[in-house]
Amino acid sequence: MEPSAKTPVNVEMVTKITQDGEKDEIRLSAKGSLVHKNEWIYVLFTEKLEEMGEVNTTLKIGDSEMLILRSGSVSMRQLYIYGQMTEGTYEMPFGKMATEVQTHHLAALWEDNGRSGRIQFGYDLKLQGEEAGRYDITIAIEEEK
Length: 145
Known about the structure:
Layout: E1 6-19, E2 22-37, E3 40-49, E4 53-61, E5 65-72, E6 75-81, E7 85-92, E8 95-110, E9 117-127, E10 130-143
């Protein structure tokens, strides 16, 4: 595969949230693209959020870390490194919040062709220093046929 060739993909994301003993699940499906560049794999897609508009999302995936960048009606920058506390930001129309995540699980498994795979990660989130729950996320990436 060429290092910077874009591969059309389907992205399925399931987010399980545990907050104050309550559990919730959010599902997202989107079309996007996957790019291999140097040591990184990038997955780019657009989320359509109810009542808020579109959010462009970039996943930058390495061997032991992942960076999520979101821009549009919601902006976010968050680094996830297994076993570490990392800081980030989350910005919505009403303001910007500081985030902290303690990543307790991070795995990216790719098929031999590198165009399909699964990312699983989990973390405890703090917003402005306050506990905001535990998040467990699975992202399935399938090359478009």
